[in-house]
Design brief:
about 775 residues; mainly beta; 8-stranded parallel beta barrel; 5-stranded mixed β-sheet; 10 helices; globular; binds beta-D-galactopyranose
């Protein structure tokens, strides 16, 4: 697949793959890949150094070709065919039957071509796509190949224009909502008949329109007693549009939409359906850990389920266009969304980055982002960029205005932000003042000044925290410190380690809680991602991030419970750290933290009380965590009893010192999956002792065998320094855990997973697959 120069003449052996596909995720990891020597301005560095693993150390660089032959039975005169890409990494050049159809450089952009003139009727057609990824073109792992959906859409020539229908809800009251539908159409003498179905599928409105202005037909439809969309109740309506020419039905489309109102107001901040709402958000890069960039809806759904349980209500697609699948899920599951476009404008962060394309492509890329996704109710803000170096200088202000105007032209209903890190500069240049929503990345000490200087009267924490930690790793002494490194290339999970430019979660909480004009935050990041292994970007073999609230396998780090204790107001959180297996630390100070939504709790070590801690204002940490700083380690049991406001015991939790690894516990996130060849079940495997206590230090090689109606797809242990490949059925547990991904085949039945580890009884589990509509 890789390296061929001309698809038609190549005699290479082509590898059979299915799209979405990421050619680089199969590795191997190699420190030489995309080694970058530079000083990172964003990270406040002043001296150049050699960085390994910045883009994941996976072989994404180079040229790749994809070919597919197909014939279109239904294709006849009067029809047209569109070839659509939800993204192609990157610098796509598309050929059909040897003729160049078009190109699209930005790997995250959605695009399509009308391939009608290139198609052969009744014969085989050959589609070929050339992709090229250059070194020094990204700041994280971008993936490689046709990593998102590719489709052919057949239409009548008389039809709705692709992405040409825009649904908004400009008036909403308890009694009625006005649903405005603007449809761009091709053809004359056209009538559109529209049905609107409510969230239960009942038809609640019918409408017909034929008045056409230019190429647009507009409908205003009254929907009675609207059920509004929000993260807590993500009600979705369906608009079914039929396009007739005379009496002949020529085209039909169904578009899901939500009825919801967004407003950003000086003083009160962000309002959703009239209620002041704070963003409890996370930033997410697009890779799915062991699956790389290849999009998979079940993987995305699992991420969102984990975030939902944490109480998260919003996602920012850092720093590029999100997948359609992610937006569909956010609509359904109830997450607000910042859809971002660029990490660079005309000025580079990396030599071969988007700066090469900005002038020619920025408008086209923004137009496609908005037109393709604007009917998703989850999107509440557009982002024109992240920490773009163009923040300084008058050109940058012009570019900000240029991009914001395009967003407004294509969608007058949503505001635009840019994540700013050069806050002082943007105060002076006017860059921050022109944005609809001033987004600050970190820089807490400048929040108050920005609030005073910027005219909007509210501030969004568009990127926050960048706290670093490794699941299950604890370092001593316990101290709040930045840029700290250790010999094992891990970070401490006491959640007190951060970067020079960033902070720990509690510091953000204070601003979120104390200032009504701070409209929320987007934590960097919900999950670890491939690449950017700060603070170990110069230390091989680190190859993935430490920023995640969850690790690369999606397993919660301790920090998950700190956010959950604050964000999930409907469920109890009571979480103890660290683990209690510290052979060799007997008698040494081993602080104990508790993350809980209770105000106070008492800690017992082997039955002996270490007193009650209550949240207080002594420091930012004391406001949000309960901490016993002088506990001395002795093996046995840590027990915490949480008290309610009346001082009565409300709940308790224990952590035990575990004995030797004895057996494995398997837990599937889903026991029943769809027999569609795509769906996934994630099986978490934990090493436990004879009594079933979790063994937090177990790093044991496990082997996997999968049989039945599915396959072994990947495995991940969340260790940012592991060089074991995700697609091979063997891996070491990292601090007692790992996750195996099973994929359904198209046959209904059972998938059996067998797990073997030296000295451990073989463990088995079984997942059912069935044909079901998800
Ligand atoms: C920000 C940047 C992110 C990531 C993060 C790490 O400045 O926007 O992409 O690099 O820092 O802390």
């Amino acid at each position: 697949m890789e390296g061929a120069e001309k698809p038609e003449t190549s005699i290479l052996n082509w590898e059979g793959v299915s799209v979405p596909h990421d050619w680089a995720i199969y590795g191997p990891f190699d420190e030489e890949i995309d080694k970058q020597t530079y000083f990172n301005e964003q990270n406040l560095e002043v001296v150049a150094s050699e960085k390994t693993g910045r883009t994941g150390a996976l072989p994404f660089i180079g040229v790749g070709w994809y070919r597919k032959t197909f014939s279109l039975k239904d294709f006849e005169p009067g029809k047209k065919a569109l070839l659509t890409f939800d993204g192609a990494m990157s610098e796509a050049q598309v050929y059909l039957n040897g003729q160049k159809v078009g190109s699209r450089p930005y790997g995250y952009s959605y695009f399509y071509f009308d391939i009608t003139p290139y198609l052969k009727q009744g014969e085989e057609n050959l589609l070929a796509v050339r992709l090229e990824n250059r070194p020094r073109s990204s700041r994280w792992y971008p993936g490689a190949g046709l990593y998102r959906k590719v489709q052919i859409i057949l239409k009548d020539e008389v039809s709705f224009k692709h992405w040409g229908t825009f649904i908004t809800t400009p008036f909403i009251s308890g009694r009625v909502a006005k649903v405005n539908i603007k449809s761009k159409v091709d053809g004359e003498n056209i009538r559109i008949e529209t049905l609107i179905k409510d969230p239960s599928g009942k038809i609640v409105a019918k409408h017909s329109a034929s008045e056409i202005f230019g190429d647009e037909i507009e409908q205003n439809i009254a929907v009675p007693t609207p059920e509004k969309w929000s993260p807590d109740s993500p009600h979705l309506y369906m608009a079914e549009l039929k396009l007739f020419q005379g009496e002949e039905l020529k085209d039909e489309i169904s578009i899901r939409f939500g009825i919801r109102e967004i407003a950003f107001k000086p003083g009160s901040g962000f309002l959703l359906n009239g209620n002041v709402t704070k963003f409890k958000g996370v930033c997410l890069h697009h890779d799915l850990g062991p699956l790389g960039a290849a999009v998979n809806k079940a993987a995305l759904r699992r991420q969102l389920e984990i975030m939902k349980d944490m109480g998260c209500n919003a996602i920012r697609s850092a720093h590029n266009m999100p997948s359609m699948e992610q937006l569909e899920l956010c609509d359904e599951m109830g997450f607000m969304f910042i859809a971002e476009s660029f990490d660079e404008w005309a000025r580079p962060k990396v030599e071969n980055g988007y700066n090469r394309f900005f002038t020619d492509w920025a408008e086209k890329d923004v137009v496609n982002l908005v037109q393709a996704t604007r009917n998703h109710p989850c999107i509440v803000i557009w982002s024109a960029g992240n920490e773009v170096p163009d923040q300084s200088g008058s050109e940058g202000v012009k570019r900000a205005k240029f991009l914001q105007d395009i967003f407004h032209r294509e969608d007058p209903t949503r505001p635009v932000t840019v994540g700013m890190d050069q806050v002082k500069t943007t105060m002076e240049s006017g860059f921050g003042a022109i944005l609809d929503v001033p987004g600050l990345n970190y820089r807490l000490r400048l929040y108050e000044e920005a609030f005073e200087k910027f005219p909007q009267q509210f501030i969004l924490g568009s990127e926050t925290a960048s706290t670093v930690s490794s699941r299950g790793v604890y370092k001593f002494p316990v101290e709040k410190v930045f840029n700290k490194t250790y010999d094992d290339a891990q970070c401490s999970s006491y959640d007190l380690e951060y970067c020079k430019w960033s902070n720990v979660p509690d510091d953000d909480f204070v601003f979120q809680d104390d200032y009504p004009w701070v409209i929320g935050e987007f934590v960097w990041t919900g999950f670890d991602y491939l690449g950017e292994p700060t603070p170990y970007d110069m230390v091989w073999p680190s190859r993935s991030s430490y920023f995640g609230i969850c690790d690369l396998a999606g397993l919660a780090k301790d920090r998950y419970y700190l956010y959950r204790s604050r964000w999930n107001t409907s469920k109890e959180t009571l979480h103890i750290l660290p683990h209690w297996n510290w052979e060799g630390r007997e008698g040494e100070i081993t602080p104990v933290f508790v993350y809980t939504n209770h105000e106070s709790a008492e800690l017992f070590v082997n039955g002996v009380s270490h007193g009650i801690q209550t949240k207080n204002n002594q420091s930012n940490q004391h406001r949000y965590r309960l901490m016993w700083m002088d506990v001395k380690y002795e093996p046995g049991t840590l027990k915490v009893v949480a008290y309610d406001k009346q001082g009565k015991p409300a709940s308790e939790k224990e952590v035990h010192t575990a004995g030797k690894p004895h057996h494995l516990l398997l837990h599937a996130n889903r026991e029943l999956i769809n027999a569609d060849g795509k769906d996934l079940s994630y099986v978490t495997i934990e090493v436990v002792d004879k009594a079933g206590n979790f063994c937090p230090n177990a790093n044991m090689q496990l082997d996997f065998e999968v049989s039945g109606s599915g396959t072994f797809l990947a495995v991940c242990n969340g260790d940012a320094t592991s060089l074991e490949m995700f697609h091979l059925p063997s891996m070491k547990t990292f601090n007692g855990k790992l996750v195996v991904l099973l994929q359904a085949s198209k046959e209904k039945g059972a998938i059996k997973l067998k797990v073997k580890g030296r000295g451990l009884a073989t463990a088995e589990t079984s997942i059912q697959t069935e044909f079901c509509i998800l």
